[in-house]
Amino acid sequence: CILTMAKTAHYYRHTVASLTLILSLCCIIGTSNARRFQKLDSIKTRPKHLLLLRGGGGGDGRSAWSINKRNQQQQQQSVKRSNQQSAFPIVEDLDDSKSDTTQQTLETMEAFLSRDTRQKFIARVYAILSGQLSFTTLVVLFFSSNKHLVAQMLQHGNFVPFLSLGVSTVAWFMICSSERARQSSPLKWQLLSIFTIAESIVVGIIASFYSMRAVILGLSTTAITTGIITAYTFLQKNPKYDLTQWGSSLASAGLIFLLMGILRLLVYSGILPAYMLPVSDLMHAGIGATLFSFYLAYHTRVIVGGKHAKYQMNEKDYVFGAMALYSDIINMFIYMLEIFGGASRDR
């Protein structure tokens, strides 16, 4: 009986892990497509007033005041040349200077408004994400504390985790593929609720196969790792390490890891022999946790945006951004569970 439950635990764990990997892979493929993001100008081609507003200088590394000084010199030279050619050039130059100043003021105000909009967008994303993670944590702790209820549910309806994954997959694809679904209310909130509830059920069932100690360690480690990655992404200002350009590379790495997961699923299902496994369980879990850590850093950078990012997420897609981060964190937690403990044998 114990051996049968152990095999069942392995089967469910790796099946659900593979399907959740598909969800995150779809997330990476969708967000790595540049057409879903606002493509930002390079630092060298951005207007000087926007660079000054953000504390930057010219693209050649000069200080901010040198740009104004150079422009003032050019304006003075143009005034002198026009004075030599016309008897009434000063009025025209004053009008041109006034219009340039007005245009610059309007563009500067627009930049300030854009920055405020971005901050509101980030706040919305993390507020939604906090609600999702809080709900999922409660479900995980409840399922882990009531393993007998999960066992009874699986005995009478072992289709529940797969049905939940199917529902969450449909909700996720609707969000990814439809701009209306991402931005229109109340549809986006309905899809968000369905996705979060379905994913929480799946993660809760997976957590029930592990000991409470492994669950607590997995939750703690995932929370600490998420905090460190988020802080690093917010504070990292070096344009040489622009994470928004990693989309294609991460999608390729995710595809390779997905093939490894499918291979493991076939081995645990008895279709392939055990020696076909390329790595051990612990190594596979470590690779998965590391990979989804990079996914989390990539999505966080796309959401934060800023002057050092090549791409950034649209401010109207805050539900989509929260779901992307949530998917990365959930997958990272699943592999943390696999690292900290084997399947529970106490049922």
TrEMBL record:
Ranges annotated as biased composition (Low complexity): 68-84
Protein name per the record: Transmembrane BAX inhibitor motif-containing protein 4
Gene Ontology, cellular component aspect: membrane
UniProt keyword annotation of Transport present: no
InterPro entries in UniProt: Bax_inhibitor_1-related (IPR006214)
Topology relative to the membrane: Multi-pass membrane protein
Main localization of the protein described in the UniProt heading: membrane
Protein family per UniProt: Belongs to the BI1 family.
